[in-house]
Specification:
The complex is a heterodimer of chains A (171) and B (790).
Chain A lengths: L4 E7 L2 E7 L5 H8 L18 E4 L2 E4 L12 E3 L1 H7 L3 H10 L8 H14 L5 H7 L11 H28 L1
Parallel strand pairs in A: 1-5
Antiparallel strand pairs in A: 1-2, 3-4, 3-5
Helix pairs in contact in A: 3-6
Chain B lengths: L22 H5 L15 E7 L5 E7 L1 H5 L3 E6 H5 L27 E2 L5 E7 L2 H8 L3 E6 L25 E8 L3 H7 L2 E9 L2 E2 L7 E7 L4 E6 L4 H11 L7 E4 L15 H13 L3 E4 L2 H7 L2 E2 L2 E9 L5 E11 L12 H9 L8 E9 L14 H18 L4 H8 L8 E2 L5 E2 L4 H12 L1 H12 L4 E13 L16 E8 L5 E5 L8 H13 L6 E4 L17 H28 L6 E4 L2 E4 L5 E4 H10 L13 E7 L6 E13 L6 E11 L6 H20 L30 E5 L17 H18 L13 H7 L4
Parallel strand pairs in B: 1-13, 11-12, 16-17, 22-23, 29-30
Antiparallel strand pairs in B: 1-5, 2-4, 2-6, 3-5, 7-17, 8-15, 9-14, 10-11, 10-13, 15-16, 18-19, 20-28, 21-22, 21-27, 24-25, 25-26, 28-29
Helix pairs in contact in B: 9-10, 10-18, 12-13, 14-15, 15-16, 17-18
Classes of the chains: A alpha+beta (171), B alpha+beta (790).
């Protein structure tokens, strides 16, 4: 391997040490080297959002990021978010609302929505639509996706409200 | 004595919002799309593609590529042709349709920019792509035929000399007396409509892994595809293998929309190379390749006329349609279908007798076109509804009232249209009434008027439509295509009392697996969670057509229903033998054998299944339980079972920038029995979005030399979340009597009508400014030109 790069990165909470070519994209590294095929290849030029993953909590395009750029960073993919249970409510809302059809965009949508729900927990429908503007879905027409994210936001807000009330009562 | 247990009542999942069971793994990132599947010793392929729209291949030098790192094999068109025979995309029911032999990889001449001229196979995809750049090709560029309007001119070069000219297909319809009707009509309106080339932009690019086992002469192909059995037949034929030595597996498919139902030269080449090398070969199209080699569609130029009497009743339509299909008619469905559908469907919702239509289908040096979601419908509906609104405007009639006067009456069925289509039972008027109520049509008109006074230009557009669904063998089979017009369902009762369903129809996100599970669970009498559905594997599923032409629910669902009835009868016979009772007095409800009259629970299904599988020795000697059943269904009452619907779009046009803001969209649709409203509504919404894409954003742009100018997702625009409005969906339900289930298709009606609704809304907004647009997509530039501002 020419100019092999010794990559050390935390992926879904686990330390990974791999030798990669400097030109290897993050999405190819995740899919081919680590077998994390949940993040998908759609356009390979940063427009469709199918390869969206979290790097140090920020959403990035796996096709515009080189694997070696994540040296020392923490990467999270749909597999990690699923196994941690962090987005179980979001996934349930997608499932109940049929906010996916072919499912190819869905992991990227979920990762993007995860960041949205953290950054803007009270996002309006317009704000949700704007935030998803880098994630292409050919199947749904987006309405169900917006509905599912809005439902999750409302449920989380209601849950926090309930927790705050309970804490206040306990105090 | 125990208190009486309330008896179980029959339950049905038909009409219930049941979330799709298979969606859960997709949500967890555990889908199995073709590129997610890894095989031992697999190799990766990359294609070398012609940069010219039309060029002679003078010389091909593979030496440098062969020496490149990781390269295992390189081949030209001649090399690939040793494993893959060529094909010709014609069918006999399209009389006169002609095309030329097409090879998996071009032999001596490339006929569109993007046609493959060589293939490289290497250890990794990156190595294959690196080496592909080292292939040296000397081209002698030839004149490219790009403009379909001059394709038939004597001065234009003929793409395939053997065919004599560039005319692929022509068809006319003449009911007689049409010119006289136009001459005597109170009103004649006419216009010219242009439609840009689209492509499907499936988020999952075309993908294939082909594995050939020489010792068994067995080809296994993992393919993102809608019709695995059709592909098995084609691989077998063109790779010269017995059909039973080919297995096609289509697990999860990342969007299809008709794009993944055709034979692509790339996929044929990959399968052929796998056979040559005896190793698994993988190929995933990149996005540039998707844009230049996925089929295109919808490039039409239509001149049309409409005649009415003084009361605004439609007397006649006249249609002149020209479409360009690229250099080959696509195999095996042919590229004549889209234009043929435009001729068939124009005027479709309306009651009139006189029709004159002429269709010309011409060859060009552009990407081949073929069937894409709602084949021909968006063109026919836009032409029809554009003329209808123009006629209403000239007669100073409200567009809704004009439609009310002309839509085929709901009690006037069966009905044969002027173009010869046969309608079993449609509900145009019920749909119109429901739509107007749903959208508060009067209130919206008042709002539009009020805002006009403030210089805000809003428009309301209506579009009535019919949709071809549940096709019979008349669609393809009669023309010699080996595309199944029926589908089967096999049900296997497991010893646990659960049921495994294997179906010939396939899943690309529509919800096929969920729909089949609901039908089977309802028919057998078990919880829907007790049904496991298997699709997309030619080794195990019953032979069938797959999912296209909105046939999965209507055809596959009916086969599942019939199989469910049969399995239930067999289970009750088994239970009767166990219980020594008469089967006629038994029923199966919620996985319990019950007394049919009282609902009293007599025996759990799981216990009956256990005995049937493991202890048949306890049953009467003459009784043999039949716990696996298969049933098949092909729709034979009608050429197609049509659906109908109507859409409305509410837009605001910024007359300074030409931008169109979609405010809201409504649709009322009649697809007969609705098995799962949640799935049907989302099919309609997704279809509308795809139609809106064509109306406002999408077009494959070519220059005069046949260079595709916008082959990236940054340049070929598709609707994203921020552009889309919320969509209100309503239903009218007229089940088809051609099946017990009564379900018709719903996959394409959204796409069929949305462009017309948006066009009419824009023109309604512009009507007071004497501006009108009829060339899709309706870009800001085109709207500003119509307004005379640029």
């Amino acid at each position: 391997m020419e100019n092999a790069f010794q990559l050390a990165v935390k992926v879904n909470g686990a330390d990974v040490a791999k030798t990669v070519e400097p030109r290897t994209h993050l999405i190819d590294f995740l899919r081919n080297d680590l077998g994390l095929t949940g993040s998908h290849i759609g356009c390979e030029h940063g427009v469709c959002g199918a390869c969206t993953v979290l790097v140090n909590g920020e959403i990035v395009r796996g096709c515009l990021t080189l694997a070696c750029q994540t040296h020392g960073a923490e990467v999270e993919t749909v597999e990690g978010l699923t196994e941690s249970g962090l987005i179980a409510d979001l996934q349930t809302a997608f499932h109940q609302r049929n906010a996916l059809q072919c499912g190819y965009c869905t992991p990227g949508m979920l990762v993007c929505a995860t960041a949205l729900l953290t950054e803007k927990p009270h996002a309006t429908r317009e704000e949700i639509r704007e935030y998803l503007s880098g994630n292409f879905c050919r199947c749904t027409g987006y309405e169900a996706i917006v509905d599912a994210i809005e439902t999750t936001a409302k449920n989380r807000a209601a849950g926090k409200q309930l927790a705050a009330t309970n804490n206040a009562e306990a105090a | 004595m125990n208190a009486p247990v309330p008896g179980l009542k029959p339950t049905t999942y038909i009409g219930q919002d049941v979330p799709r069971p298979n969606a859960k793994r997709l949500l967890a990132g555990r889908g199995q799309y073709v590129d997610d599947i890894r095989l031992p010793r697999e190799l990766h392929a990359a294609f070398v593609r012609s940069p010219h729209a039309h060029a002679k291949i003078v010389h091909l030098n593979l030496d440098a590529a062969r020496k490149a790192k990781g390269v295992f094999w390189c081949g030209s068109g001649v090399d690939v042709a040793r494993a893959v025979s060529p094909w010709v995309g014609v069918l006999t029911h399209f009389k006169g349709l002609k095309s030329a032999p097409q090879y998996a990889v071009a032999l001596e001449r490339a006929t569109w920019q993007g046609e493959a001229v060589a293939v490289v196979v290497a250890q990794t995809r990156a190595q294959a792509e690196d080496a592909a750049q080292l292939v040296e090709v000397d081209y002698d560029p030839l004149p490219a035929v790009t403009n379909m309007e001059t394709a038939l001119d004597p001065a234009t070069p003929v793409i395939h000399a053997d065919l004599g000219d560039n005319l692929a297909f022509t068809r006319g319809v003449d009911t007689g007396g049409v010119q006289d009707v136009f001459a005597g009509a109170h009103l004649v309106v006419e216009d010219t409509f242009r439609f840009g080339r689209h492509t499907g932009v499936c988020l999952e690019p075309r993908a294939i892994t082909a594995d050939f086992n020489p010792s068994e002469q067995q080809l296994t192909v993992y393919l993102g595809n809608q019709a695995p059995h059709m592909m098995r037949d084609i691989f077998a034929k063109h790779l010269d293998l017995p059909e039973s030595h080919v297995r096609v597996i289509s697990r999860d498919v990342g969007g299809s929309f008709g794009i993944k139902v055709h034979v692509y030269p790339d996929e044929m080449a990959i399968a052929g190379i796998a056979k040559l090398l005896g190793r698994p070969i993988r190929y995933l199209a990149d996005r540039l390749e998707s844009f230049s080699t996925d089929i295109h569609a919808r490039e039409h130029l239509v001149k049309a006329k409409l005649a009415t009497d003084k009361d605004g009743r439609i007397l006649a339509f006249e249609l002149d349609d020209l479409t360009g299909i690229g250099p080959y008619s696509v195999y095996p469905r042919t590229s004549a279908v889209e234009g043929n559908q435009v001729v068939n469907l124009t005027g479709g919702p309306y009651d009139f007798k006189h029709y004159l239509a002429n269709l010309k289908v011409v060859f060009q040096n552009k990407t081949p076109t073929c069937q894409y979601r709602a084949v021909g419908h968006p063109i026919a509906v836009a032409v029809t509804e554009g003329l209808v609104d123009l006629a209403a405007q000239k007669l100073r009639l409200d567009p809704a009232e004009f439609r009310r006067r002309n839509l085929i009456a709901d009690d006037n069925y069966p009905y044969t249209s002027a173009s010869g289509l046969k309608f079993e039972a449609l509900s145009h008027h019920a749909c119109l009434d429901k739509l107007l109520k749903l959208m508060d049509y009067k209130g919206l008109r008042a709002e539009q008027q009020a805002l006009r006074a403030k210089g805000i230009h809003r428009g309301i557009g209506l579009a009535a439509l019919i949709e071809v669904t549940n096709p019979s063998a008349l669609f393809y089979g009669v023309g010699g295509a080996r595309i199944s017009a029926q589908d089967g369902c096999t049900l296997r009762l497991e010893p646990t009392g659960w049921v495994t369903a294997l179906t010939g129809v396939t899943e690309q996100g529509q919800g096929t697996e969920g729909m089949i599970a609901q039908v089977v669970a309802s028919a057998v009498g078990i919880p829907v969670e007790h049904v496991r559905v298997i699709t997309g594997d030619t080794d195990v599923t019953p032979y069938g057509g797959g999912t296209w032409a909105s046939r999965a629910a209507g055809i596959g669902g009916e086969a599942a229903l019939m199989a469910g009835h049969t399995l239930k009868a067999n289970i009750l016979a088994l239970a009767a033998a166990i219980l020594t009772r008469d089967a006629a007095g038994l029923d199966l409800r919620a996985a319990q054998i019950v007394d049919a009259a009282t609902g009293e629970v007599l025996l759990p299904l799981a216990e009956a299944a256990r005995i049937g599988q493991y202890r048949p020795d306890t049953l009467p000697r003459a009784f043999q339980p039949e716990l696996t059943v298969s049933r098949q269904y092909g729709q034979r009452d009608w050429p197609f079972v049509f659906t109908n619907g109507i859409q409305a779009s509410y837009v605001e046009v910024d007359t300074d920038t030409g931008f169109v803001k979609l405010l809201k969209h409504w649709m009322v649709e009649d697809c007969g029995t609705i098995i799962n409203p949640l799935l049907v509504d989302e099919q309609l919404r997704g279809g509308i979005a795809q139609g809106i894409g064509g109306a406002l954003f999408e077009e494959c742009l070519y220059d005069d030399t046949g260079q595709l100018l916008n082959a990236t997702m940054a340049d070929y625009l598709v609707p994203m979340a921020a552009e889309m409005p919320d969509m209100v969906i309503g239903h009218v339900c007229t089940p088809t009597k051609s099946s017990e289930l009564g379900a018709k298709g719903a996959g394409e009606a959204g796409t069929a009508g949305a462009p017309a609704a948006v066009m009419n809304a824009i023109n309604d907004a512009l009507s007071t400014l004497s501006a009108r647009v009829t060339e899709q997509p309706f870009t800001p530039e085109r709207i500003l030109r119509a307004l005379g501002k640029v």
